[in-house]
Amino acid sequence: MDPYCLKKLNAERRARRAALLLTDLGDGRDRVIKEGDPVAGQLGELIGRAFLSGRSGVAEVDGRSFFLNVHLPPPRLVVIGAVHISQALAPMAKLAGYDVEIIDPRTAFATPERFSDVTLFAEWPQDVLKTRPFDAYTAVAVVTHDPKIDDQALEAALKAGCFYIGALGSRKTHGARVERLRALGFDDAGIARIHAPIGLDIGAASPSEIAVAVLAEVIGAFRARSLHTPLTLEKTA
């Protein structure tokens, strides 16, 4: 591999951005392609599919052979709220291959006894995000029912272009949430990216059932994801 390509690829991986090393098997030349970079024709379509699937392999295009070596960041699920749903959701998400983090400033809930095998932050979301920001390979599930906590995470998730954003609460609760986000400058198209009520509609009632519905929705969003450009706020008078 060309040293320049290796350096570029490693930089993308450190930044938790997807990248692909494209090697022409005919002449051995390679180049790094970032997710979202324009590549024309059939090769571009195959590269797009490779980013979605995460699978590396050989592609035949116009009589030429290419090896597509895909590097995706490990998907991360950040749960805002150390509640009963989170206790069920965390181990299931880990089994599904997600790195899981729980954030909740309420120290009565965010305890090692309740979350013994999970990365846990008993801090406000905005404080954690200074060093562990959201990105396009992060799913965010906000479940505290406390706007002082949830809204901070939702604002950050929308700006970061997270592949999944879900929020617990009734339609009435979400209606009030929408108004608060509009007041922060987000438009309806951006706010519509929030899955609310959170989780697939399977009639879930118990915390464990809700956790199943949330994880299924996260997995579906990841496998069908498209690139979301980080949002900029509308100017308000």
TrEMBL record:
Family matches, as Pfam families: XdhC_C (PF13478)
Residue span(s) of domain XdhC Rossmann: 77-218
Top-level division of the source organism's lineage: Bacteria
Listed PANTHER family: ALDEHYDE OXIDOREDUCTASE MOLYBDENUM COFACTOR ASSEMBLY PROTEIN (PTHR30388), MOLYBDENUM COFACTOR INSERTION CHAPERONE PAOD (PTHR30388:SF4)
Protein name: Xanthine dehydrogenase accessory factor
